[in-house]
Amino acid sequence: MATVPHGEPAPRPATPITEATEEKTYHRIMDAFYHTLSAAPDMAQGFNALYDKLHHLDLDPKLVELAYLMVSKVNNCRYCVHVHTYLGRQEGLTNAQLTELDNYRESDAYDTLQKLILRYAEDITRKIHSDPRVVEGLKQFLTEKELVELAMTVGVANMANRLADLVTVPSPH
């Protein structure tokens, strides 16, 4: 297993994280992740190609980031939660949408489609299959292509979460 040595993360500032600080942290941990992957360039190239496709889908980027965040929360991948919180904010997710994931079913921060996306991502991550009613609900909103893109997003997020843990990418916290 490849590991990258790293020191203890810096303590969090007492003031709210500014957008510039969040962006710096995003770039620092992305650099660490890709530096680690560079030890196996062919594998890194394949992973990069797949991961980069997540940013060029028909599926709304907000939905991509919600699905990715839910997977990362379920898998307790703090690195991925941080990265995709930053990306979700860039795609227009609200603070409430970024902070109420643990209670999405009761939250007013999400519409019906967003709740279905979150439930699907949670189900697939926890038990490989989703409730057929969730899938039927998604079919009311998404095209077949978007459904495949959602499934691929959840799969890539699960893979990246595990990979980040295996290569011991430092967490921002």
Number of structural domains: 1
Overall mean pLDDT? 85
Indicate the multimeric state.
single chain
Give the total of beta strands. Answer: 0
- Taken from the alpha-carbon principal axes, the silhouette is globular
Distance between the termini: 23 Å
Keywords:
173 residues; mainly alpha; AhpD-like; 8 helices
Please give a structural write-up.
- The structure is a single chain.
- This protein starts with 18 loop residues before the first helix and ends in a 7-residue tail after the last helix.
- The protein is 65% helix and 0% strand.
- Residues 1-16 have low confidence and may be disordered.
- It has a single domain (19-166), classed as AhpD-like, CATH 1.20.1290.10.
- The protein has helices spanning 19-37, 41-53, 61-74, 78-91, 95-99, 112-127, 132-139, 144-166.
- With 173 residues, the protein is mostly helical.
- The chain contains eight helices and no strands.
- The longest helix has 23 residues, at 144-166.
Characterize this entry briefly.
The protein is mostly helical and 173 residues long.
List the helices and strands and how they pair.
Layout: H1 19-37, H2 41-53, H3 61-74, H4 78-91, H5 95-99, H6 112-127, H7 132-139, H8 144-166
